[in-house]
UniProtKB/TrEMBL annotation:
It comes from marine metagenome. Keywords: Oxidoreductase. InterPro entries: Mal/L-sulf/L-lact_DH-like_ah, Mal/L-sulf/L-lact_DH-like_NADP, Mal/L-sulfo/L-lacto_DH-like_sf, Malate/L-lactate_DH-like. SUPFAM superfamilies: L-sulfolactate dehydrogenase-like (SSF89733). It holds the Pfam family Ldh_2. Gene3D superfamilies: 1.10.1530.10, Hypothetical oxidoreductase yiak, domain 2. This is Malate/L-lactate dehydrogenase subfamily protein. Transmembrane segments: none annotated. The lineage of its organism: unclassified sequences, metagenomes, ecological metagenomes. PANTHER family: MALATE DEHYDROGENASE, OXIDOREDUCTASE-RELATED.
Amino acid sequence: MLKEKMVDVLSTEGLNDVSIKHLTDSMISTSLRGTDSHGINLFPHYINAIRSGRISKKPAFNFVKGSNTTAILDADHAVGHHSSYVAMEYAVGLAKEHGMGSVAIKNSTHCGAVAYFGLLAAEQDCIGFAFTNADDLVKASNGRDSFFGTNPICFTAPLLDEAPLCHDMATSLVSWNKIRNHCMEDRAIPDHWAFNKNGDNVTNPHDARSLAPIGDYKGFGLGMMVDVLTSLLSNSPISKDIKPMFTSEISEKRFIGQYVMVIDISKYIDIQLFKQSLQSMVDRIRVVEPLDNSPVMVPGDPEKLSTVERIQNGIPIDEFRYKEYLEISNLFSNCLIND
């Protein structure tokens, strides 16, 4: 029901059908996985970005092939979920033919959770890597100011008896959307999540201007790696030069870059043997004796558990999102949510 209502609103705004499919599929699957910061909570923002022209309603994709295994996609400011998925499909095709494939994406927009398109590779019996840059929110290690975005990294691989392994992580300690959620709820943030304009640690979310990199200089280095892949390979802006997602004029283009890479496992080893070996690794990790009552998990386990629970009980929406959805319902005369 929720997806149908979202589709109605997006169709009314004139967004093309394929972009609608990828945007709604990504938002809902991401929220089911428990990543609320990048799921349906962003629907109001996407509506505003589409209405203002930041996101192209009918983009014209253009692939420029660099070699048998590389290409650049000019996304024409499409919904990032759509352009990144198309790029991953293209990279999978290259990998199936040549063993490996990679696509750098330029002139894109916010793509939600990179797991959405990262998982596509694993579903095709490949290993997948997916990256995106973003506006500078992560404080430079030992610096006062931010330089790189949260610049997430996603690694996926197929398992034998269950949904693929998926490690989707930001290179910051938390996402900026978590800071925004605490602001809206007027709740203090944990120590060392964020810093003020002087680079000092804060617990008041309203004072936050930058985020902590995960693992200090190590996470900052990973963020730099992501920027090299997503920016420099396609001659796109680096994080420091990207327009902010929420505080810049909503009509301004952001020129975000993404990057995907795919390895065809069968070009190295029998795919079933690989799946058995990875499944064995995962199973052995899960039976490691835990320190407390919480089980030892592998990357992606919390998301799998969340998906099962939320399919049964629904996706929760806080009162602030409820009000935003109610405003959209009234604006479009669409019962997206009932008062």
